[in-house]
Amino acid sequence: MGNDLKLRRWRESDCRMIYDWRISPETMRWCFDQQIFPYDGHECWFAGFLKNSRRFGFILEDDGQPVAQIRFDPAELTGCYRISLAVAPGRSGHGYGSSILHLACQSSEIRRNAALLVAETMLDNLPSQKIFVRNGFIQAGSGESAGFKMLCWLLPVHSFAHPLPIQFFAEPAWMEDIEKILSATGLALAGDATAQVKLFMGAAVSDSDLVSSVVLHLNVNHTTVLDLALRYPGQIELPVEFCNMQTAVAQLAASLSFLQTC
After folding, report:
1. Looking at domain 5-156, what is its CATH homologous superfamily?
2. pLDDT tens, residue by residue, 105-129
């Protein structure tokens, strides 16, 4: 890795290069979607990506040569973004993955639009896991995608001066995992009856007056699904499925905090 690293946004001329990187065996090995799609389909997707003001793609150049790419797509909830990154074929092992992740996460585009970054890696993808750990991401449980077991990763983009109080109605075993992720991310804290956000999980119920509260319900079974969102301040289309309970709680906390500051 040289001393002339530069981060820039995706541009139209990157279309073929990104496609070639995507279908290379080095990249495909760690993709949840193992399908090799035709180039004309990629062209259409790429054009749509560039026109979408809510999606962000970056290229890392070393001495003018593209060496890695990263993109940020809106995740399940407002203010949360999902990361996908790849190093150019033949360029692994030089620190480019960590460099592009660090620079892109610090970019003005991401700091302005995101409260929480989400990523998933295959269970045996140790190189990517090391990159996320090195850049401060928090491991937030596991899940499954397209038949592959995966680890989930979270990075709060901002530290909120006053973490969001949420009153949880959940089984004690779930609360242990919830409190761990809240402590690690600093996005929210377990509040009491005065909290304006009430999060019900599973079959939990309450006799409290909920008329003026944001009321949320997570159905936690084989999957974690948000199926109720009364007075949620942003746009949302239910149901919303998450990879696991920890990620669901973190995204809800980050999204609500983000929407309060907009």
Report:
1. Gcn5-related N-acetyltransferase (GNAT) (3.40.630.30)
2. 999 999 999 999 999 999 999 999 9
